[in-house]
UniProtKB/TrEMBL annotation, chain A:
This is DNA-binding ferritin-like protein (Dps family). It holds the Pfam family DUF1048. It comes from Actinoplanes campanulatus. InterPro entries: UCP029876 (IPR008316). GO terms for molecular function: DNA binding. Keywords: DNA-binding. It comes from the Bacteria.
TrEMBL record, chain B:
Keywords: DNA-binding. This is DNA-binding ferritin-like protein (Dps family). One of its GO terms (molecular function) is DNA binding. It comes from Actinoplanes campanulatus. The lineage of its organism: Bacteria, Bacillati, Actinomycetota, Actinomycetes, Micromonosporales. It comes from the Bacteria. SUPFAM superfamilies: BH3980-like. It holds the Pfam family DUF1048. Gene3D superfamilies: c-terminal domain of poly(a) binding protein.
TrEMBL record, chain C:
Keywords: DNA-binding. InterPro entries: Metal_resp_DNA-bind_regulator (IPR052509), Tscrpt_reg_PadR_N (IPR005149), WH-like_DNA-bd_sf (IPR036388), WH_DNA-bd_sf (IPR036390). One of its GO terms (molecular function) is DNA binding. Residues 16-87 form the Transcription regulator PadR N-terminal domain. It comes from Actinoplanes campanulatus. This is DNA-binding PadR family transcriptional regulator.
């Protein structure tokens, strides 16, 4: 399934983004920037894996505890993202492998 | 010769046509960027095109998402489309481009949070 | 103590396993526990990525449950594989720390 299907109004995706919109503004900002970065880096299971919804779970808990978002992710949000996808191959990884064959 | 023509005739035609249709649905400035991206990605093909499919899919997905959010194409891609493609394909120069994405992410977060708090 | 990040790499996962072994608990509580122990630099995000890894490697059992405040929480307990991993962690730790102690003593 392509990202396209999700963007074009998959119910799940809309429900997911609705949860994002219910987060406090600082959490929303960080979530959206993270998502943008992750879409670019492109871990292969991004849209049908649990990564994105897991981040929202995690953020909902942090927000409920009243913690500022950067206390939760750390100042280096990119490092947090990279740590999250450390074990999942990206499209670039798969592609480079296919060239080596 | 365009990217699409190159792959026409292969058994992958149908998939590429689907990509072409998705490209058509994008705003004009995005369509131009798409063309440049696919032409650039060709540099990385060896080439039945099959191994490039997921990458083109990812690139299109990114553009579709950005267009849906009303971002400008420049905001998404920056000035360096060859570098962007290198990062997508994981080729030479991918490291530095991903570093730039990292910096961009942290900078955007800092800027937008500051504006929020201000 | 601050600036322990580099030194804690590789041991933090063991610490999280130990905390979960003690009692069923959830992410934010684990971070607080580590902070209270004196690892003040450890943040929730780091613990979150460790928990994801533990889950993916099949070392913990996860139950999503309602909490008194806020959204449902994921609670973690160790399974058999997790307990084995924890035992391995402690024996590695004993090995490394005893050697380092020896090195330090010899230098005196």
């Amino acid at each position: 399934m392509g990202i396209h299907d999700l963007i074009e109004g998959k119910r799940q995706w809309r429900a997911h983004m609705a949860r994002v919109k219910a987060l406090p503004p600082d959490y929303q900002i960080v979530y959206k920037e993270m998502q943008r970065y992750l879409f670019k880096v492109g871990p292969v299971d991004l849209t049908d894996g649990p990564l994105l919804s897991g981040i929202v779970d995690f953020f909902e808990e942090g927000a409920a505890a009243g913690r500022p978002v950067l206390k939760v992710t750390g100042r280096d949000v990119a490092a947090f993202c990279d740590e999250l996808i450390k074990d999942s191959p990206t499209y670039a990884d798969l592609f480079q492998q296919s060239l080596k064959k | 010769m365009s990217f699409w023509e190159t792959v026409t005739g292969s058994d992958l035609t149908r998939e590429w046509q689907a990509f072409a249709a998705r490209t058509e649905a994008l705003p004009a400035d995005y369509r131009a960027a798409c063309e440049e991206i696919t032409n650039n990605l060709m540099l990385y093909a060896n080439f039945s095109g099959r191994n490039l499919l997921p990458i083109v899919d990812a690139a299109l997905g990114l553009l579709e998402e950005a267009a849906a959010e009303g971002q400008s194409v420049h905001e998404v891609l920056g000035d360096d489309i060859p570098g962007f493609c290198a990062a997508l394909a994981g080729g030479e120069g991918a490291r530095t481009h991903r570093d730039r994405w990292r910096e961009q992410l942290n900078r955007n977060v800092a800027r937008k949070l500051a504006r929020l708090g201000g | 103590m601050e600036d322990l990040t580099e030194m804690l790499k590789g041991t933090l996962e063991g610490c999280v396993l130990e905390i979960i072994a003690g009692e069923e608990t959830y992410g934010y509580a684990i971070t607080r526990r580590l902070n209270d122990l004196g690892f003040t630099d450890v943040i929730d995000g780091t613990v979150y990525t460790i928990l994801l890894r533990l889950e993916r490697n099949g070392l913990v059992q996860v139950a999503k449950r309602r909490s008194e405040v806020g959204p449902p929480r994921k609670f973690y307990t160790l399974n058999e594989a997790g307990r084995r991993e924890l035992a391995t962690f402690w024996s590695k730790w004993e090995y490394v720390s005893s050697r380092i102690d020896r090195l330090k003593e010899a230098g005196r």
